[in-house]
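Exercise 7.
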Amino acid sequence: MLIAIVLLFSLNAVCYAGDQGDAFVSVSIGDARTLIPILASDSSSAEICGLIFNGLLKYDKDIKLTGDLAESWDVLDAGLTIVFHLRRGVKWHDGREFTSRDVEFTYNKLVDPKVKTPYSGDFEKVAELEAVDDHTVRVRYKEPFSPGLSSWGMWIMPEHLLKNEDLDISDFSRRPVGTGPYKFKRWLTQDRIELEANSEYFEGRPFIDRYVYRVIPDTATIFLELQMENIDSAGLTPLQYRRQTDSGFFRSRFSKYNLPSFGFTYLGYNLNNDLFKDVRVRQALDYAVDKNEIIKIVLLGLGRPATGPFAPESWAYNKEVLARHFDPAMSKKLLAEAGWHDSDNDGWLDKGGRVFEFTIITNQGNEQRIRVAEIIQRRLEPLGVKVKLKVIEWSVLLAEYIDKRDFDAVLLGWSLGREPDIFDIWHSSKTREGEFNFIGYKNAEVDRLLNEARREFDIDKRKGYYHKAHKMIYDDQPYMFLYVPDSLQALHKRFRGVEAAPLGIGWNFIKWWVPLSEQKYRMKQ
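Solution. The predicted structure, written as tokens, is:
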């Protein structure tokens, strides 16, 4: 019996301990801009900051909030107060202890009007933040604010290193010190950023010794580097996923992942344009475009029809809202009811002397969106709706057309956060220049539902508010909701411990490991 127990223990040790060592080589088309976490608004900077820093809370693999630097928290006074109980014994990478003063310092920087952070809006409802003792933080809100909890996923900065620094010019932006699983090692501009494992990380030392973030500004070169095994992971286009990776060589070396994405692509109407003010017109356009055709032709089947403002994996998503079927006859009926007829038999609908004609604008460099716009154009033409297309450079599109509301319809996409608060996109108060409700959507009942959802902490009650808002927005059709694209990724097979989850595949990166016999890189002694 004793021998059997020892053998069993040994087998478990081999299966679950993993081997330390090796490096993970990631890639991006763009370099990071800054590694000061509250200034990091681009994806490259955010990816690196996420390995170096921690927030008070984070999302677990099932997209539920869990503790990070906070061990626990209490929501009191009907949501007006949150008390965070911080982990003890957490250290910054330079050896100093993390305390509540670091949280207080980070908050003060977030609400400092002199600091150009894009994240201050999440903290405007805070009336007061108090560091009660070294390991307790009390936050009082002006009114109940349920997205407040997720906002504390904001990465915390070290007071002792930054209290006398100007964040706009601080050297910390290129030599950060955090509490996270990886320590900053070096940054070669427009080439790579290298990190090394934090042996004292509070959740345990990462198995992978090094994280190398390469910068390759061309997607074709990235795919070539992936095939040469010079990088370990990269996103794939539908064509690469379906056909260009269908080889014995690729299959033997890489795993491919097809995961849900937290976003959707849409055609947004300028609701201040008289063409789109009648809901029957917007619904008619929706019936006229076959979303499954778009998904088949453009995405090669790698996506799903979108039905509203939430990602299907969000708890706020209302599964009872179903996408309209392709029905040109219904389109004609609704357009006729709205007063649109071909009165002069020229093939185009008209009303009051005005032809039904509009322009779709989209951004340069996104071939998928351009092809989608062409399909929409082709589907609307038989109905007598004349559509022109205009492709515009990204920064010009935003500055000259979106911000100034100078468009008829725009084909774009939203990437959504895990917190389902959609106030900034859909509330009628967010229609000013530079704000996200640039189509001018206004629905008093949707406003009420979004306000109530922000004040409510009970997730079932919030879900009820969002489910109603989801249905109302889809019925209103301020957007033609098109599709939710799949997130496509390739990862080298030598990495073990990888587990796909609703949050993605990287949620447990510090637990990934490579058997010694398959390790590719060695640390210099």
